[in-house]
Every structure is written in C-alpha cells, then in structure tokens.
C-alpha cells in the first residue's frame, strides 16, 4: 500500500466516524480525546481503558526539565512529529513525568536517536498529519509518514496493544528506547535492564528519579511475528549485543543488557500482514508484567481488545445520558471521559502492588489504585465518581488511600501520589475530605474507624506543612512556613470534614476538637482589608500586602488573596458575615470577576490560566467561587457567571480547556455545572443549584435509581432560572440534598431571559443554612 493510500484511508476513517457520530450520536461517539491536547489542557489522545493502568499514547516530544511543562502529557497538538508510543501518561497534570517504555516502528535503516523535529530523517521521529489521525476512547491511530507505517493503538486494563501496518514489503522493525522520558533531564534513568528470551519475549525494567524518586517499573513485550534479528544497545558504554533467529543456529536462552541508556532494536523482515505488539507493565516484577500480559487475552486479537475496551467505555459513559446541541454534548461527554481516567488501577492481576515504602504488598478484598491528585480532585472529581461509578470502585479508592497510609514511612495519607509513591506536591491533607465524603454519602466496604484514625493522624503530624504551629497557634505562620495563608484555610476545611465523619461515627470528642479547628480560618481573615492574609508567628499580618500578587512560595498556593479569600466552604455563611454581609459580598465578587488585569503580568506563574478578572478558572481554588453568590442571596448572579465561565473556558477543540485538567477536576466541574448543580463543600451532602447547560440529562445511579434533569426554554438568551421543581413540586431552596439524588426522581428548570431575583434568596433557602 502506498503512503498516499495510507493518508486517504485515515481521512476516510475520520470522515466515516464523523458521519456515524451525526447519525447515531452515542455517548461513546460524542467523546473527542483531542480536547485539551493543545493550549494548557495537558491531556493525551491515546488509548486507555476506564481507570486503566496503561495509558498508551503518542509522544510528540520530550523536553529538558525547565521546558517540560507544556509537554506534561507527552503530546502537543501543534507539534509536527511523533517520537513513538509510550505506555504511561498523566491526563491533564500540572507537572510532567512518566512516558515509560517508548516503542516506535520503523522500516529501513535503524536510527537510534530521535533527531530534530525540523530536520526530517535526522532520527527515528516521524512527521505526521492530523488528517489521518483518529482518537476514540480506547483507540488511537495515526500515519507516520517518514516511517511509512500506519500505527493503531488500543489498551485494556493492564495491557496495551499496537498494530503496525508497514507500507508495501518494506522490512519491519520496532525500536525500544528506555532512555526516553517525559520530564527529561540527565541522570533521570538510574538503571534499566532489557532481556530477550528464546521465544522472542522481551522483558525488562527501569528505575527513574523524577517527580517521584526511585520509581521502579517493569515491562513485558510480545510480538505476533518471529524475530529475524535483534540488537541491544548501551549508548553510554557503546556496548551492542546482537542476536539472530536463523535456521540451524542455537541462540542463547536469554540475551540481556543492563545500564542507564539502553535501547533495543527488533527486526522482522518483510511481513505479509500487520505486526502486533502487546505490552504490559508492573511495579512488582518482570514475572508480574508477564502475568499481566496474559491477563486479558493470551493472543494478539487487536479488535477483540479494542471491542472489550469500547464496551467498558460505553458502560462507564452510560452513567450519564445527555440531550444538548452537538458542541455542548461533545464538551460534556469528553469531560466525563476525562473524569474516568484516574485514579488508575495500579495493582497487578494477582493483586500485588508497590507501596510508598517501596515494598511489594498484596491487597485483600480491594484493587489498589494510584495517581491521586488530591488538592485538585477532592473538589468535584471524587464527588462525581460517587454518582457515576459503582460503590466498589469508590471503596477501592478509599481502601487504596488507607493502605498507602499504613505503608507510609510517615504514617499519613497520600498528598499527591502516583505509581504508589508520594511526591509531596501541593498542600493540605485532602485525602481526608475524599474519605469523609464517601462515608457520609453511604459508601461502605472499608473500615470507618481505621479511616478516622488515619485522618486524625494525618491532621496531627506536626512536621508536615506547619501543622505543629497550626495546632498551637491556630494558624500557619508565614515566617516559618511558605504559603501559610492557603495552608491555614485548607487545613481548616479538612478539619471540618474530620469532625463531620467523627460525629457520624459517634466520636464526640474528636468531633468537638476538629470543629474547633475548622474555625481557624478566622485567625487568618483580616477584617480591615476583607481578605484572607498570612500572619507572622507574632500575630501580625505580613506586609506589604498586594491582593493581586502571585509568586510561588509566597503567602498563597498557585493563587493570591482574591482567590483564596473565598476558601471557607465549611462556613461560607460565617465568611459572608465577616466580609460585611450579602451586599458587600456580591459587590466584592463582582469586583473580582470584573477586575482590570491590564497592568498585571502573571507570565511567571505557569498554572495561572483562564482569567476572568481575578477569577482564575484554570486553577482549582476558584472553582466554587461563582456559586458564592447563592450563599449571599443572589443566585441569579451565579447563573450569569456560570454562563460566562462555560462560554469562555470550555470548547470542543484541542485548546478547549483553559487550564490543566488536573486528572479530571476541570472536567468534573463542567459535568456538574452542565447538570445544574455543584458540590461546593464535599462532606456537606449538599449540592448548590446553579443552572443547567443541557436540555435533558439522566443520571443512572450506582444504586439502580435514575435522576433526571430537564431544562425548559434553555437557550443562549435564556440565561436565568425562572423556577425549579423537584419531583413535580416547586423547589424554593437553592440546593439539593444527596439523599434526594440517590432516591431518584426529576429536577426541572424553567429558563428565562430576565433574572428571578426572588427565587432561593431567603436565608433558610440558601445552601448550608444553619438557621433552625
């Protein structure tokens, strides 16, 4: 087949898939994995199963550490070349790593270095065109024009499968580059090994020093065609081991090479059909990688694995049914898709996994998950999973957090964990609200008393993030701990969720202790300026003070006083009172959204994106702020701001996410907001009603019940909620209770062009109202 025919076939497949989407717009067909692969989204387009251990995706470039931010997912939609396909990726992280076990097909002469993107033929990277590129949940395909190969990828839970169709009778080869890594820098690979067994099975491992230090990953590779020859290269030591599979020769049982800069070249000669490559990974051992390799199928049936993964995605996406115009439908279903990638399974088929102590453990009664971006995902991602995933999945995640706490050398819950290892990234102890919210919403299958003990232990570990001073002073002092203002308010919220769970378990002494700590936000609120501010150990607020200043390691975490002064989700009524009441808060919120940033420069702050005045939707501290108007008795202002945010921050294009998706948090925000409600304070069992962005939605809940949302008169002109009914009865309050969702039923909105300034404005109708 000629190269032009490859491109034509790719374009035809893309056109056919577009027609199918128009004719039968299923949830699966509505997903566009390219959303977020440009701009600041940091998503990847490759193949992954729901919560899959393998994320098999193209890497368009790997950059040195200081340039790696925009390549955090390995793929940039505006890059012209592809290096190859690696098996581990983050979906939307604000930090880069992974990109393990890079494979790239080739024909003709072997090139061992990637070469330069602007010099075709200078290395093994290949040019490609988006015209023939296809991405669907669990499937990716692209034509590598320089390599003259049509590459297709699919993935199961623990395996990835490549299907390479080579042009004509060109000799087929595959390069394995164990040097390549996202978040690249000299010395990242501490050690690696590659082995080739008599039957052509390739196994190995590498240990890396990156975002998580000392990360070990093992792999196993099988090909559906016999090897003609292979060569193992140590590029540091100029060592080459060559092996052949020829009649009459008796190769050694195993070829093996170890070092820090290894590559393998595997050649198959001219083929009469596609070359299929099956790969599995493990954090435990090469033997376990082999176990995982056969865990989903013993053979090389690409279409069977693709079909099984498609069925898994159809089931997962089927938890939400949507009727909406095509652009919104694509945005929301893709958001749901991105919300179902992590936390990912990280236990092998036999239940074993590697924990934060670098030891191998075996899970009893649960499947170990990792990749917990908790500072981001406690807000909406985990609350969404409670509504769209089975109880077992959610209890597995809680049990994984608790297992990690047991294995932790410090005895605390994960902060930001991937591949079982702690990174200590971001602040707070936000595994706590994830666990509390799950328990309070009825998730069982884990030891609640052990969970509460782990939560308390994390909240009282004095060496962590100024917690010793927080406990004694009631706040984190800025002259002893950076980002002190943010840490104080985030600890206070986490403490409130501990109190909520303790009270539910009848542990009154713990509840009283942490209810008191939940009020510590007041110790960092400056009534004179109206902002949350950092204080020194002597009690004075730090000066000079600029509420718009954003600097890493300063008073706030990835933000400033404008964003963090609203972070009191456990007591927003108290915050409103402290700020001067409803009118003052509405005015301050409007000032925030309408702020003139023309004289400000935030180019030094990578995560500050998606600005609407001083509201920063591209980063998480702002995510609940539009809903604050409802707490101040002005829900129609929430409705207008949500329209402004959705229109400006989301679109069904590669640059359609205004900021890092952060393992599903940006996406989960959109899913909830499109449905018409949002969990402002996980642990409260309440959802604040905003306004819907879809004409109809149905939640097929894990308990078998069905909750529908309908929007009458929804249009760009009808921004505002006129009235709301729940199960056919007028609803005058601005919130839903979790038990109302779980019971099933219907929520109906009547939309209109003018604001209804009387609906849900009375104090008793507001969310988390404490009035009797």
UniProtKB/TrEMBL annotation:
Domain spans labelled Glycosyl hydrolase family: 288-752
Region span, Disordered: 753-772
A UniProt-annotated Pfam family: Glyco_hydro_92
InterPro entries cross-referenced by the UniProt entry: 6-hairpin_glycosidase_sf (IPR008928), GH-type_carb-bd (IPR014718), GH92_a_mannosidase_put (IPR005887), GH92_N (IPR041371), Glyco_hydro_92 (IPR012939), PNGase (IPR050883)
Gene Ontology annotations of biological process type: carbohydrate metabolic process; glycoprotein catabolic process
Record carries keyword Secreted: no
GO molecular function, one term: peptide-N4-(N-acetyl-beta-glucosaminyl)asparagine amidase activity
Record keywords: Signal
Residues spanning the signal sequence: 1-22
Domain spans labelled Glycosyl hydrolase family 92 N-terminal: 31-282
NCBIfam families cross-referenced by the UniProt entry: aman2_put
Protein name: Alpha-1,2-mannosidase
């Amino acid at each position: 087949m000629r190269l032009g025919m490859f491109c034509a076939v790719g374009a035809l497949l893309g056109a056919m898939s577009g027609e199918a989407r128009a004719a039968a717009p299923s949830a699966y067909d509505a997903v566009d994995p390219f959303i977020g692969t440009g701009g600041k989204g940091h998503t990847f387009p490759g193949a992954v199963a729901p919560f899959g251990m393998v994320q098999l995706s193209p890497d368009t470039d790997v950059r040195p550490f200081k340039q790696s931010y925009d390549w955090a997912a390995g793929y940039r939609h505006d890059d012209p070349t592809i290096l190859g396909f690696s098996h581990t990726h983050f979906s939307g992280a604000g930090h880069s790593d992974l990109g393990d076990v890079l494979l790239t097909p080739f024909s003709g002469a072997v090139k061992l270095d990637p070469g330069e993107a602007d010099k075709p033929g200078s290395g093994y990277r290949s040019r490609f065109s988006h015209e023939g590129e296809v991405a669907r949940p669990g499937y990716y395909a692209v034509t590598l024009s320089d390599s003259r190969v049509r590459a297709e990828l699919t993935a199961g839970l623990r395996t990835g499968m490549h299907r390479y169709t080579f042009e004509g009778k060109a000799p087929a080869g595959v390069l394995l580059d164990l040097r390549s890594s996202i978040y690249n820098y000299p010395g990242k690979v501490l050690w690696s090994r590659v082995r080739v067994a008599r039957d052509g099975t390739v196994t190995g491992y590498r240990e890396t020093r990156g975002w998580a230090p000392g990360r070990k990953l093992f792999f196993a590779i099988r090909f559906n065609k016999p090897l003609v020859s292979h060569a193992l290269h140590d590029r540091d030591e100029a060592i080459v081991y060559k092996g052949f599979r020829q009649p009459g020769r008796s190769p050694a049982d195993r070829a093996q090479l170890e070092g820090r800069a290894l590559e393998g070249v595997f050649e198959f000669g001219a083929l009469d059909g596609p070359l299929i490559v099956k790969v599995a990974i493990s954090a435990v051992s090469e033997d376990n990688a082999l176990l995982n390799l056969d865990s989903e199928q013993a053979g090389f049936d690409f279409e069977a694995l693709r079909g099984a993964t498609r069925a898994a995605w159809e089931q997962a996406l089927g938890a939400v049914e949507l009727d909406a115009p095509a652009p919104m439908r694509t945005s929301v279903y893709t958001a749901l898709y991105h919300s179902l990638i992590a936390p990912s399974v990280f236990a092998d088929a036999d239940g074993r996994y590697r924990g934060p102590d670098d030891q191998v453990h075996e899970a009893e009664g649960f499947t170990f998950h990792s990749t917990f971006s908790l500072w981001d995902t406690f807000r909406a991602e985990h609350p969404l999973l409670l509504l769209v995933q089975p109880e077992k999945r959610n209890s597995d995640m809680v049990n994984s957090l608790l297992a990690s706490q047991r294995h932790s050398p410090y005895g605390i819950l994960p902060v930001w964990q991937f591949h079982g290892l702690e990174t200590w990234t971001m602040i707070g102890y936000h595994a706590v609200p994830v666990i509390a919210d799950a328990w309070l919403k009825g998730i069982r299958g884990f030891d609640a008393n052990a969970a509460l003990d782990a939560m308390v232990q994390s909240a009282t570990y004095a060496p962590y993030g100024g917690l010793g001073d927080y406990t004694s002073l009631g706040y984190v002092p800025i002259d002893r701990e950076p980002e002190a203002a943010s840490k104080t308010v985030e600890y206070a919220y986490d403490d409130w969720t501990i109190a909520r769970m303790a009270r539910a378990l009848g542990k009154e002494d713990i509840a009283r202790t942490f209810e008191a700590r939940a009020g510590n936000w007041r110790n960092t609120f400056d009534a004179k300026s109206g902002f949350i501010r950092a204080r020194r150990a002597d009690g004075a607020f730090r000066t000079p003070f600029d509420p718009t200043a954003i600097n890493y390691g300063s008073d706030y975490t990835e933000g400033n006083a404008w964003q963090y002064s609203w972070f009191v989700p456990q007591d927003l009524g108290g915050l409103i009172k402290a700020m001067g009441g409803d009118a003052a808060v509405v005015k301050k919120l409007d000032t925030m959204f309408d702020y003139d940033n023309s004289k400000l420069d935030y180019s030094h702050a990578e995560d500050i994106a998606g600005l609407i005045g001083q509201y920063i939707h591209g980063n998480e501290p702002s995510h609940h702020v539009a809903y604050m108007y409802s707490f101040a008795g002005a829900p129609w202002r929430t409705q207008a701001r949500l329209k402004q945010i959705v229109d400006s921050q989301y679109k069904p294009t590669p640059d359609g996410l205004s900021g890092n998706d952060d393992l599903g948090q940006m996406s989960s925000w959109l899913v909830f907001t499109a449905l018409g409600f949002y969990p402002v304070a996980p642990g409260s069992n309440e959802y604040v009603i905003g306004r819907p962005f879809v004409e109809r939605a149905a939640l097929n809940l894990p308990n078998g019940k069905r909750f529908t949302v309908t929007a009458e008169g929804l249009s760009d002109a009808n921004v505002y909620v006129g009235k709301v009914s729940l199960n056919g009865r007028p609803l005058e309050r601005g919130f839903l209770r979790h038990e109302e969702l779980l019971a099933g039923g219907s929520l109906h909105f009547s939309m209109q062009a003018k604001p209804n300034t009387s609906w849900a404005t009375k104090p008793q109708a507001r969310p988390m109202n404490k009035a009797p």
